[in-house]
Amino acid sequence: MKYEFNTDKAYDIIAVGRACIDLNATEFNRPMEETMTFSKYVGGSPANIAIGSSKLGLKAGFIGKISDDQHGRFIEQYMRSVGIDTSNMVVDNEGHKTGLAFTEIKSPEECSILMYRQDVADLYLAPEEVNEEYIKQSKILLVSGTALSKSPSREAVLKAVSLAKRNDVKVVFELDYRPYSWNSPEETAVYCSLVAEQADVVIGTRDEYDVMESKEGGKNEDTISYLFNHSPELVVIKHGVEGSYAYTKSGETFRGRAYKTNVLKTFGAGDSYASAFLYALISGKEIETALKYGGASASIVVSKHSSSEAMPTVEEIEQLIAEGSYIEAGVPN
Ligand SMILES: Nc1ncnc2c1ncn2[C@@H]1O[C@H](COP(=O)(O)OP(=O)(O)O)[C@@H](O)[C@H]1O
Ligand SMILES: O=C(O)C[C@@H](O)[C@H](O)C(=O)COP(=O)(O)O
């Protein structure tokens, strides 16, 4: 089964939310306290997804606010250099700084992220900085849940969603739950369910859906029966190495698998998965095939050092799919 988009649009995907900096430990198997060196990359989930999409050949744009300093300029220049339209990236003029994510790579299983996100520029994106003429030109508006965590970014995103819906732009909601950005899980549940109910496609991990639904150990069946009572037509639920599921409103279920790889770190999986899954859908591939693209892309990125720079090419993804070495894991949920 395929998922249809309005093909009469200049952009394939416009992402809204944070574009930040990742500082990834270059010393592995070591706690952060003992790590002395880090490499700098553009980061932030929606920026990573835009970068991954652009690298796969999609026409991508970005809406967000960046700091008026060396970090903001680095982000804009890098994103432009990989082919992303940055015309709707706004420079903050109130002194807000870029968010930083320091990553600790203790072992392939034990990775963590230390975020510096106090008063960050991306959460100051204002509704008046979201432009209807821009959004209406895209097949997809990709919304990151973290952008809902504070005002005025929250209202900017709600406006972007409403403009997308008025202009036949599919809203893809990536739950992207980052607890440190929110006041409470209850607040997350309120705003994430508000947007999920309006979205056309929702993507998240099982744990992220649990936060949105204010429960523990939630079942995929309950999630889809809730969401399919609202706007969503396609719901993707990820289960780490156990793979993922895509559910359609018309009743089909497709299973995606993770691919064997030499894991260096676990972060970057979700963003690379989303960009390749959406690339495949936009390219007219079957949903089942799109799950393969997502899984293969993620397995490539977890074997590499960064999330953004490491985004694979179509050829790399297709080669991995052709090799077909899935991780044999039980059926979750
Ligand atoms: N250790 C791993 N090895 C190979 N693929 C992985 C691994 N972890 C995750 N993936 C792939 O990345 C996808 C997304 O990972 P997941 O952990 O569910 O999301 P997130 O990174 O958003 O938390 C999975 O569906 C799987 O295909
Ligand atoms: O999203 C962030 O702010 C940090 C990312 O740039 C970082 O690379 C990361 O955590 C990606 O992980 P994922 O969301 O699991 O793909």
Summarize the model shown.
The protein is of the alpha/beta class and about 325 residues long.
Question: Helix count?
Answer: 10
CATH fold-type name of one domain: UDP-N-acetylmuramoyl-L-alanine:D-glutamate ligase
Describe the main β-sheet briefly: 9 strands, mixed
Please tell me the CATH architecture of one domain by its name. Answer: 3-Layer(aba) Sandwich
Count the E strands.
Answer: 13
User: Strand pairing plus helix content: what structural class?
Assistant: alpha/beta
- Assembly level: single chain
Residue-averaged pLDDT, rounded?
96
Uncertain segments of ≥5 residues (pLDDT<50)? none
H/E topology pattern? EEEHEHEEEHEHEHEHHEEEHHH
Between the first and last Cα atoms, what is the distance in angstroms? 23 Å
Strand content bin: 15-25%
CATH class of one domain: Alpha Beta
CATH superfamily of one domain: Ribokinase
Compute the gyration radius: what is it? Answer: 18 Å
Q: Strands across the major sheet, in which order?
A: 5-4-1-8-9-10-11-12-13
The geometry reads as globular
Describe this structure in words.
The chain is an alpha/beta fold. The protein has a domain at 11-17 and 45-64 and 126-323: 3-Layer(aba) Sandwich (UDP-N-acetylmuramoyl-L-alanine:D-glutamate ligase), CATH 3.40.1190.20. The protein is 33% helix and 21% strand. The protein is built from ten helices and 13 strands. It has a nine-stranded mixed β-sheet with strand order 5-4-1-8-9-10-11-12-13, with helices on both faces. Strands 3-2-6-7 form a four-stranded mixed β-sheet. Helix 8 (269-282) runs antiparallel to helix 9 and helix 9 (287-301) packs across helix 10 (314-323). The longest helix is centred in the last third of the chain and has 15 residues, at 287-301. It is globular, with a radius of gyration of 18 Å. The two termini are 23 Å apart. The structure holds adenosine-5'-diphosphate and ligand LHLMWEOZ. The ligand O=C(O)C[C@@H](O)[C@H](O)C(=O)COP(=O)(O)O binds next to strand 2, helix 1 and helix 8. The ligand O=C(O)C[C@@H](O)[C@H](O)C(=O)COP(=O)(O)O binds at residues 20, 22, 43-45, 48, 101, 113, 267-271, 307.
